Amino acid sequence: MRKYNLILILIASCLLSFLIAPTEINKKERKDAVTYFKETKKFLKSELKGLSEAQLNWKPADSVWSIANCVEHIAVTEKGIFDWAMSTLKETPNSKMDVSKKVTDADVKNKVTDRSHKAKAPEIFKPSGRFGNTAQSFNAFEKKRDSLITYIKTTKDDLRGHFANTQLGLTDTYQLLLLLSAHTKRHTLQIVELKSMPGFPAK
User: Fold this and answer.
1) Which residues contact 40 (CB under 8 A, 6 or more apart)?
2) What does the CA dihedral 67, 69, 75, 80 come to, rounded to 10 degrees?
3) Is 12's pLDDT higher than 80?
4) Would the pTM of this model clear 0.70, i.e. be above it?
5) Helices 173-195 & 134-154, crossing angle to 10 degrees?
6) pLDDT tens per residue, range 37-96
7) 177: closest CA among 80, 52, 100?
8) Largest CA distance in the chain
9) What top-level class would CATH report for the domain 26-195?
10) What's the mean per-residue pLDDT of the chain?
11) Which residues pair with 165 in a beta bridge?
12) Which of 6, 129, 141, 157 is the most buried (most CB within 10 A)?
């Protein structure tokens, strides 16, 4: 009888462990995220290629960020948003969370990159020349982005089971990482706008 009870306890423990075990993102989610991270990195790099110091630091008005400012902001928020995403994993998963209210992955990408909606950067993320120059800002961004790509390729974290309330709505951790990449694209589009403005230096 004792042996039978022990077997039942072991089976129950295994089932319980299975039920509460973190769920890894699937192969498609992993691939889609890595592709998006690489795509937005490549977009930024291509828009910076061959720009002179005069072009990098040009502003159409004192209140408008230069390309150099945009790159520094991207580099700073790369770490800031990643740290925010990782902080959600420290919270206990909420099994009663109403995921029907969660935004979609497409919503995250489309809404963040929509330049018709303006947003004000928090003070800690505003450019201040902390990296020295644009090349160093981009290097800081690239180093963090490459580590993020490695993370998403290998992580076993439950990125879909943890959440944060954002301006977009209820967002899971995986979507916060998509938001990070969309943020890069948003400000790269800002760089594209700057380059097309009247008065932008020819060289």
Assistant:
1) 181, 182, 184, 185, 188
2) -140
3) no
4) yes
5) 150
6) 999 999 999 999 999 999 999 999 999 999 999 999 999 999 999 999 999 999 887 766
7) 80
8) 88
9) mainly alpha
10) 89
11) 170
12) 141
State the first-to-last Cα distance of the chain, in angstroms, to the nearest integer.
86
3-state secondary structure the chain: CHHHHHHHHHHHHHHHHHHHCCCCCCHHHHHHHHHHHHHHHHHHHHHHCCCCHHHHHCCCCCCCCCHHHHHHHHHHHHHHHHHHHHHHCCCCCCCCCCHHHECCHHHHHHHHCCCCCCCCCCHHHCCCCCCCCHHHHHHHHHHHHHHHHHHHHHCCCCCCCCEEEECCEEEEHHHHHHHHHHHHHHHHHHHHHHHCCCCCCCC
* pLDDT at position 13 over 50: no
pLDDT per position as a tens digit, 147-166:
999 999 999 999 999 999 99
